[in-house]
Amino acid sequence: MSNTKFPDGFMWGGATAANQFEGGYNLGGKGLACADLFTGGTHTEPRRITAKLEESTFYPSHEAVDFYHHYKEDIRLMAEAGFKVFRMSINWTRIFPTGKEAEPNEEGLQFYEDVFNELKKYQIEPLVTIAHFDIPLALTNEVNGWASRDLIDYYLHFCEVIFKRYKHLVKHWLTFNEINTSTMEIGNYLSLGIRHAEGDFLHQKDDPTVRYQALHHQFVASAKAVKLGHSINPDFMIGCMIAYMPRYPRTCEPSDVLLAKQTEAMHSHFCGDVHVKGYYPFYANTYFKDNGITIEFAPEDEQVLREGTVDFYTFSYYLTLCASNDPAYKNSGKSVIGGAENPYLKTNDWGMQTDPVGLRIALNDLYTRYNIPLMVVENGLGAFDKLEDDGTINDPYRIDYFKEHILQMHKAIQDGVDLIGFTIWGCIDLVSASTGEMAKRYGIIYVDKYDDGTGDYSRKKKASYYWYKDVISSNGENGLEE
């Protein structure tokens, strides 16, 4: 008998985002979102942001893998795999095309109601991200996105409508996806909808004061959304979502250790501390002072943050990073996040170094810090999958990746961590957020869609699908043998 059985009620499942998965960008009354101006890219040529839609340019999110028309088939495939939970997002502009309308778009509301009812039919719990890198383009063009405090009220209007409409269909909500990406330059347009000149979306004109002020507005909006949601349905569980990227010191030289702690604090802990503890931590105030950043608080903001703390903490985990003060190592890593390369870890085709043990470390650190339920809502491997002549897709590398990470999650639970669920990223192939390509496939289900826009959208189960199904059906007793 295996000793890797997970706790009863553990929520196994998968995760997607509307702008990478749904498609139907101009159907059903949907308006344009910032994500609709992201072009395609490759793992060697970064995607771009265009100032407006260009007829000759391919925008992957416009069709993505067409969940909009395939949701019944996709949910059936999830059910066959035994999913207990499906993390998805609601496309803001499908409900409010410009973000400013007084009345919502009924066709958009009905679409998601149909999706939730389909999930309910198979007893799959939806875990809904309210804002997953998805901001109405009109709010970027007219008020500069989250740099404007106006976004708080627009967002809360969106929340109120979906909380009331789906209060009997959805229990678990996340306010913002990977909110801490806004502590980095990449967050300007992606997370905050701050106006951006055409060009490489990884390198943007950056004003840290504007960026952190915009992030503050998201903190306030999140806290208010938590209170609003609980007033509509006290049974709602409303959480945060952090892109958790632990930092190791490259060496045990004390300055490397200090740098690792400082960078991890601002990039991985700051947002979680505000969400869970309800106030700005001391180290953030020191960082702002040292960097000439001033955050404007409205008189009620401190109380709002204290009263709107989250019920549970969720995070994505893909990699760990190294910090070094030595110029020879400082920027030796290939990750878009930067940092030094770790000589003890393997690096994949996209420069990410995989570190399963780091997940156990992260879970222990987070539970020690917050002592509330945790959930890993993104973890996955992008890879060049090959469709064989007989129609099979053999991806043992993905099975190995998940197996190694799930084993470390089980060890963290044995350590005493309250881990309640796990949703693999891109359970069905989707558009990569970082590179804008389909070739970087994450799913356990293959979609016949390619980077030139061709494909018939047919779905095929990969070898990893059958493996994950076995893990779920046995609650971890099968498929995880060390």
Structure description:
This protein is 37% helix and 14% strand. The protein is α/β, with parallel strands linked by helices. It has a single domain, classed as TIM Barrel, CATH 3.20.20. The strands form five sheets. Strands 1-3-4-5-7-9-13-14 form an eight-stranded parallel barrel, surrounded by five helices. Strand 11 and strand 12 (353-354) form a beta hairpin. Helix 6 (150-165) runs parallel beside helix 8 (208-232). The longest helix has 25 residues, at 208-232.
In whole angstroms, the N-to-C terminal distance is: 13 Å
CATH architectural label: Alpha-Beta Barrel
Q: Tell how many strands the DSSP assignment holds.
A: 16
Total count of helical runs of at least 4 residues: 14
Largest sheet: 8 strands, parallel, barrel
- Structural class category: alpha/beta
Average pLDDT confidence is 95
**Helix-strand pattern, N to C?**
EHEHEHHEHHEHEHEEHHHEEEEHEHEEEH
What's the CATH H-level homologous superfamily?
Answer: Glycosidases
Over all CA atoms, what is the radius of gyration?
A: 21 Å
Percentage of residues in strands: 5-15%
Q: How many structural domains? A: 1
- Detail the poorly predicted runs: none
Pfam families: Glyco_hydro_1
InterPro entries: GH, GH_1_N_CS, Glyco_hydro_1
Keywords: Glycosidase, Hydrolase
Organism: Listeria welshimeri serovar 6b (strain ATCC 35897 / DSM 20650 / CCUG 15529 / CIP 8149 / NCTC 11857 / SLCC 5334 / V8)
